[in-house]
Backbone:
C-alpha cells in the first residue's frame, strides 16, 4: 500500500513547527526501536523517514504529511548512549514544549520493541500525553522477532501502560493496516465512512 506522504519541515522549537491545520500524531521511541522503518512501511514511501536521519535533523522534530488530513511528527529517538548531557538537556524541553503546547496534536504513538516492553521513559511519556487528554497509541515493534509462544508474556509486560499494543513489523507487515486505520480515524470525525 502506498499513501501520499512527504517530508515537510524540521523544527527545533514550537515557533518553527509548520502553521498548518492538520491533525498531528507524534511518534516517539528509543533510538533503534524501528521508527524510521515503521514510518516508511506505514506510508509505503521508501526512504521517507531517512530524511529525518540526515545530519542536523536527527535532533529535531520532523514533520511529514500522511494523506490529506494527517501530519506525522517524527520525534528524536531517546536513550541514545552516545548523546551528550548537553544535547539531552537541549532536547528535553523541545520535546516537552511540543507535547505540552502544540494545539493540533491529537495523539502520541509510542514505539516500544516488542521483546523489551515499556520502561520508565515510555510510562512518563504516556502520563504526559494523558495529562493533556491526548490519545496514547502503542506499537510493539519488530514483532516478527517474537515467537507466538512468547506473545502472552510480552503482552503482560505492556499491560502497565494501560493500552493494548498493536504488534507491528516493518519486515512482514503485521499490524500496519490496523495502525493506519487507527491513525486516520484521529483525523476523521466519527460517522465519516472513511473512519471505519
Ligand atoms: P530507528 O532508529 O528507530 O529509526 O530504527 P530503524 O528503523 O533505523 O531500525 C533500527 C534497526 O532495526 C535496523 O537494523 C532495522 O533493520 C531493524 N528493524 C526495523 N524494523 C524492524 C522490524 O520490523 N523487524 C526486524 N526484525 N527488524 C527491524
Residues:
Amino acid at each position: 500500500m502506498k499513501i501520499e506522504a512527504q517530508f515537510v519541515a524540521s523544527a527545533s522549537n514550537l515557533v518553527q513547527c509548520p502553521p498548518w491545520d492538520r491533525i498531528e500524531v507524534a511518534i516517539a521511541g528509543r533510538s533503534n526501536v524501528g521508527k524510521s522503518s515503521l514510518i516508511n512501511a506505514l506510508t509505503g514511501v521508501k526512504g521517507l523517514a531517512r530524511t529525518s536521519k540526515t545530519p542536523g535533523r536527527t535532533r529535531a522534530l520532523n514533520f511529514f504529511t500522511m494523506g490529506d488530513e494527517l501530519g506525522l511528527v517524527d520525534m528524536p529517538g531517546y536513550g541514545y548512549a552516545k548523546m551528550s548531557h548537553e544535547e539531552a538537556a537541549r532536547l528535553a524541553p523541545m520535546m516537552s514544549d511540543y507535547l505540552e503546547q502544540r494545539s493540533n496534536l491529537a495523539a502520541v504513538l509510542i514505539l516500544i520493541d516488542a521483546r523489551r516492553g515499556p520502561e520508565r521513559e515510555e510510562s512518563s511519556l504516556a502520563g504526559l500525553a494523558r495529562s493533556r487528554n491526548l490519545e496514547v497509541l502503542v506499537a510493539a515493534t519488530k514483532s516478527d522477532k517474537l515467537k507466538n509462544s512468547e506473545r502472552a508474556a510480552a503482552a503482560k509486560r505492556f499491560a502497565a501502560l494501560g493500552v493494548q499494543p498493536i504488534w507491528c513489523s516493518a519486515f512482514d507487515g503485521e499490524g500496519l493496516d490496523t495502525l493506519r486505520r487507527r491513525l486516520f480515524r484521529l483525523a476523521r470525525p466519527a460517522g465519516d465512512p472513511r473512519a471505519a
Notes: The beta strands are 5-11, 23-29, 61-66, 70-74, 105-113, 135-141, 166-167. The chain has one domain: 5-191. The pocket of guanosine-5'-diphosphate is lined by residues 29, 31-37, 77, 141-142, 144-145, 169-171 (CB under 6 Å).
